[in-house]
Amino acid sequence: MKVLIIDGYVDEPAHFGVPPYISAYPRYIAGLVNMTDHDFFYDTIDGVRQHGLEDADMLIVIGGVTVPGNYVGGIPMTTEEAKEISKKFFGSRKMIIGSMAQYEVKRSGGVVANLKAFEGYDFALWNDYERKLYEILTGKAWNKGRYSLVKIASIEGASIVKQHPNFPDLMCEIELGMGCEKEIKCSFCTESIWGKAISRPIDDVIEEISALYKSGCRHFRLGRISNIFAYMGDKYPDPNAINALYTGIRSIAPDLITLHTDNANPGYIYSHMKESEKIVSIISAYNTPGDVLSMGIESFDPKVISMNNLKIGKDQAFDVIKMVNDVGGSRVEGIPKLLPGINLLYGLVGETKETYRINFEALMKIFNANLMVRRVNIRKVMVFPQTPLFEKLNGKALKIDEFMYKHHKFIVRKEFDHEMLKRVFPSGSIFRDVIIEYHDGKISYGRKMGTYAMLIGIPKILDLRSHVDCVVVDHGQRSLTALPIPLKINIEGYDVLKWIPCIGDRASVVILKRPFDSMQDFVRKTNLKFPDWMSGMVRFER
């Protein structure tokens, strides 16, 4: 039997799979198909949009967005597309897997999801889908625990990465656990649906990464967990387990290029500051630069925090952010190793106009304390059935003052983000291995693989999918301007030269006085001097 696996991409609270990321879903599913002696063909929703459906006996569609976001590498499948795919497939059985199997939702915040099973699919699976799919494929029940099945499937399905259109420039989202360690759950979050927090065995994680590494993957993010600080912990964090995880990964994947993480619960960190400080130290020792701890602070407003069972107060959040800066803020070629990221959410119970002021003032307190925050996500909440927020709002979305929301977002981007970006990535910071993704006019845009990868504009047309090292020379609100290095001063055109700090509007003069034989020759002919941080990056070949 031939199985067609279509990756519609997912964006769930602790599980990301939009290119250049690949989620665990297609890898586990491919492993289950392999385990049961069936053949599979893997395609992405972008592939289906271009060339339609492949013929197969069984269809498995992966999809679901429960976190509002903007995407560069790919556009997640819509519910309309999922329904259309079902209509056009004529094999014997069809199933949909992921949060889309349970929720029908528009890809934006400030809306209410519908709890609805898909028509046109024989099976709609999400929770514990691995064991259910195994039973569908074999007719036999898997009576052991879920992770005993995932252990086999994750290794058997690792080679599917070679069929992804982004391979080998592909970030593998690695599952560390499921559920939430909080006794009283946040009002809005769907992660609580998975129940009490459970951690995946360390050896299983390492063995999967080993299989992916042998298949050619070099980029890994330790995700699919709501709080990495609670990994293998019970009432307290377990720094020894984190150390064993990271050292084990480094041992079996010695030439990895990216090792990042994702979610962290700031309330849990604050409650266990001593152990958490050790964990930050371990992560920043073994990760690669540019890593982010995504902290779901959601709001600094005490009223909103109380009414939505949020994780931490604003003063305690400040202490956590300072600790991560102190321990994880060291730099490699100008790039910090590990910084906090802040999530702010609007549309929660108890929110007023005052909430916007409180949140902005809290951000500026962080800025004025000379601390660093890698990024601030500002989103409208999605309201999902089976969450406390759905019950509190009687199944309706809280009305958001659109003017206040847009103005607040604008001010944060202008007053906080832009200035913070200068602090986090000062001029002279070097980004290695930036992958060019698209062009806009005479500018090539790309990103380095990583958690919340920075968008980098390079004022030169470079080949798509090419890799380039570059140095930061200017800052936008959410992006950087950088120049390719080494800087070939006798070769580069006007559009590159004008961005060099010492040249600017004298680029035409520099071009007329070329060629230069050396730095001394350059200074003599132009009376210009490169900044100290740039002088070692300049080359004079013709």
Describe the structure.
The N and C termini lie far apart (about 60 Å). The chain has about 550 residues and is of the alpha/beta class. Helix 6 (about 200-215) packs parallel to helix 7 (about 240-250). The model has no long low-confidence stretch (mean pLDDT about 95). About 35% of the residues lie in helices and about 25% in strands.
Q: What labels would you give this structure?
A:
542 residues, alpha/beta, OB fold (Dihydrolipoamide Acetyltransferase, E2P), six-stranded mixed β-sheet, five-stranded mixed barrel, 27 strands, 34% helix, 23% strand
Furnish the topology, listing elements before pairings.
Elements: E1 2-12, E2 15-16, E3 21-22, H1 24-35, E4 39-44, H2 45-51, E5 58-65, H3 79-88, E6 93-97, E7 103-104, E8 114-115, E9 123-125, H4 129-138, H5 146-156, E10 171-175, E11 177-178, E12 198-199, H6 202-214, E13 219-223, H7 239-252, E14 258-261, E15 263-264, H8 266-271, H9 273-286, E16 291-298, H10 302-307, H11 314-328, E17 331-332, E18 335-336, E19 338-346, H12 353-368, E20 375-380, H13 388-392, H14 402-424, E21 430-440, E22 443-447, E23 455-458, E24 467-475, E25 479-484, E26 487-488, H15 494-497, H16 507-513, H17 519-526, H18 532-535, E27 538-539
Parallel strand pairs: 1-4, 1-5, 3-10, 5-6, 6-9, 10-13, 13-14, 15-16, 16-19, 19-20, 23-25, 26-27
Antiparallel strand pairs: 1-2, 7-8, 11-12, 17-18, 21-22, 21-24, 22-23, 24-25
